[in-house]
Amino acid sequence: FGLACACLRERAHSYSWEDLLSMAGDGDAMEVDAEAPAPAAEATEAAEAAEAPAPAPAAAEEAPAAAAEAPAPAPAAPVIEVTPAGPSQDETCEAAVKATLDAPDNAGERIRNAAWAEAPDDVADCVELAARQLLYEALDKEDQTTAKKIVAVLVDHTVHCEQCGDRGPVLNVAHKLLEDCIDAAPSTNADGWWDLVESHKGALTENPAIFKAGKFILLRLCNSLLKRLSRTRQATLCGRILMFMAAAWPLSEKSALNMKGLCHTDNVTEFESADQFDAQNADDDFDDAGDGAPKEDYDTYSGFWSVQKYLSNPPSCFKDVKGFLAAVDVTCSALERTACTPDEFERERAAMVERQAQPMNVEPEDDTQQMLGSQKYLTNSRLLRIQLRDPQLRTQVCSQLYMVLDYLRRELESMNARDWASEPKARVRKILAGTPPTGPEAAGSLDLLLEHEVQWAAWKKKGCPPFEKEPLPEKPKQKRPYYAPPLPEVLKRKQARRDALEKKRKDEEPPLEEKCRRLASQIPTLKEHLQEWRDADDPAEDIDDEYHPRHDPVWKFRALRLVMKEKLPWFADMHDANIEVAVDKMFPDRPKRTDRPAPPPPPPKPVVKKKRVREESPPKEEDAKRRKDDRDESPRSRRERSARDRP
């Protein structure tokens, strides 16, 4: 939280009222009062005609003539007329404010009606004088309750005036009174008054008209209160104020941009000279740390504290690189020499975990535990060894060095110069991560913060352009002219769509191996397949015979395939492919239905008798003679005989 407050404080750079006017220019500075219904020569008649109460009868007769002679005024912001005269308007504005303290219902309307009835030409001053008189009386009596009620009633009045269309100084009366209250209150009671500001945050900052009328007063209030508060004892309240400013004002607000990139050079760290150091450490028996370790010399002391002048003005490091690196080296050496051991680090981490496990309503033992990381440490040389072992001081010094070295590294990278900041940056990070009890967490938070810092620095270099951008104008829709593409173009588009669908189908279709694996996983086992037959024969299932799987030839074919795959020896007993034999073997104790008729035997196959035709064979003697003649016959005779026998 302390690191976040330090970053926000650097963002919300304080400027005086004169600086704000000079940055905004004459036109912007008077922008708050430009729209106010001031009694100018050109707008007096229009304001009286639009905002004054109902005129008397005599004035009503003269009004049409005056309106006819005068030119028509320019259209102004809509203003609701005052309620007609009644019991609530018979009182003065001061009496109305005093009455609404006890009955805050419709306080804004009541005060507005009374102010318009009492001083229609100067409503804002009338309300401010009446409320300020009551407020000063309450502050003189130290009655904070009444003072807070007056401010709350004025905030209600401001909201009501804005809803009625009023613009100008009447919308910042509550801001002025709130500023007077906080300026008059001591810093020890600032918490209560700031609670009042936060309770009315929505009314003061979320409405554009009210925020525009009083934003400079709020800015002056916050900056003056921050200057009065202690950054050590009241660090929580300072953080609340900074968070309020960061939420209320946009990032493009000029008072928070630091356009010139100025550094806080007024933060000067003074330390002892060499003679003063020798005088302070003249007593050799003085052991400030209590551990008997040797004292630090003046080079370590001066190098440790002289690095602060570079940290308060980082651009000055480029002018004295050797001096800055020497001071960083001395500081890192001192911190490394006094670092805790690994055992001490683990003990501190365990103690931190134990403290975090305690209930959240445990109050701290003393006020020192409430201090956040924004102290100004003493530079007495006798305290150096104790300070070097202080985890809070080590974390602060390392955080400052780490952020400045990262800034220098980015600047060197943009200038294409030799990088001499990365090595000491890594050294500082190692020291920071080894500091108990929250060293690793602090190092990680700094890394994340510096990543965001890169984007922030780039935005600053571009001149801080506003983040809020107006929406682009909508282009009018134009009617497309009719266009009929030629036939080849149509066919080409259709073919392209078909190719795209085919490619998509092929990409989504699994490969052949995946298909085979899926099919194999879907094949049931023999027992699972025959379970359907068993369930059909079970009397408890009461399945009709027409749904029995024995009537399904496809089911029987699959059963035979599974039997052949898993139980091939069963085929010896399965005459005529009787599946019931396999079911009996698989489920020997299965229940059977007796009321179901046995299946009819298959019809016998018709026997086709073949007619046997007997051929008369030649006698054996003729056959032998013919074979002998064939052997004795010459080839020529055989050819001639074949030619004769040929048809």
Describe the structure in your own words.
- With 647 residues, this protein is mainly α.
- It has helices at 2-11, 17-29, 31-34, 44-51, 57-69, 93-102, 107-118, 123-140, 144-163, 173-184, 190-199, 201-206, 208-228, 235-248, 274-280, 298-311, 321-337, 342-356, 384-388, 391-414, 422-433, 439-461, 487-508, 512-522, 526-537, 553-566, 579-586, 620-632, 635-645.
- Residues 1-80, 82-88 and 362-374 have low confidence and may be disordered.
Regions with pLDDT < 50 over 5+ consecutive residues? 1-80, 82-88, 362-374
Strand content: under 5%
What shape does the CA trace take?
elongated
Radius of gyration: 51 Å
The helix content is 55-70%
Total number of helices: 29
Topology as a string of helices (H) and strands (E): HHHHHHHHHHHHHHHHHHHHHHHHHHHHH
The average pLDDT value, as a whole number, equals: 76
Largest sheet: none
Number of strands: 0
Euclidean distance between termini CA atoms: 125 Å
| SSE class | mainly alpha
How are the SSEs placed, and which strands pair?
Elements: H1 2-11, H2 17-29, H3 31-34, H4 44-51, H5 57-69, H6 93-102, H7 107-118, H8 123-140, H9 144-163, H10 173-184, H11 190-199, H12 201-206, H13 208-228, H14 235-248, H15 274-280, H16 298-311, H17 321-337, H18 342-356, H19 384-388, H20 391-414, H21 422-433, H22 439-461, H23 487-508, H24 512-522, H25 526-537, H26 553-566, H27 579-586, H28 620-632, H29 635-645
Helix pairs in contact: 1-14, 6-7, 6-8, 6-9, 7-8, 7-9, 8-9, 8-10, 9-10, 10-13, 16-17, 17-21, 20-21, 20-22, 21-22, 25-27
